[in-house]
Amino acid sequence: MRLSFFVTGENTCYKYDIEIINTFNSEIRGLYNYYKIANNVSNLHKFYHFMKFSFAKTLGSKYNMSVAKMIAKYKVNGEIGVKYETKKGQKIMYFYQDGFKRVRN
After folding, report:
1. Who contacts 102 (Cβ-Cβ below 8 Å, separation ≥6)?
2. What is the CA radius of gyration of the chain?
3. Rounded CA gap, 61 and 93, in Å?
4. What is the pLDDT of residues 7-50, one digit of tens each?
5. Rounded-to-integer distance, Cα 91 and Cα 10, Å
6. How buried is 36 (Cβ within 10 angstroms: 0-12 exposed, 13-18 middle, 19+ buried)?
7. Which of 5, 13, 79, 105 is the most buried (most CB within 10 A)?
8. Residue closest to 59 by CA, chosen among 96, 18, 94
9. Which percentage of the chain shows pLDDT scores above 70?
């Protein structure tokens, strides 16, 4: 039996885009908070790129568009972000940008 693994978008047709990006950001932050004291925490950049692609794939699945088109659509000021409205006006929630620096005790 042959196993193969593919990145597939989560079925999130019922969610708003802001909820989707918030979910991905919280998963990345949670994993970083767990591993931030490890010597090789900077290797999480591989996980970051995987999650970024998975985010684009999830939105692409929701809107029936390709990953490249989704990245182009959600690119704001050179970064991936989702625009949303508040009572005070329009805001942007960006995809995780805080990096993966080691925290020493």
Report:
1. 36, 37, 38, 39, 41, 42
2. 15
3. 20
4. 555 555 568 999 999 999 999 999 999 999 999 998 999 999 99
5. 25
6. middle
7. 79
8. 18
9. 87
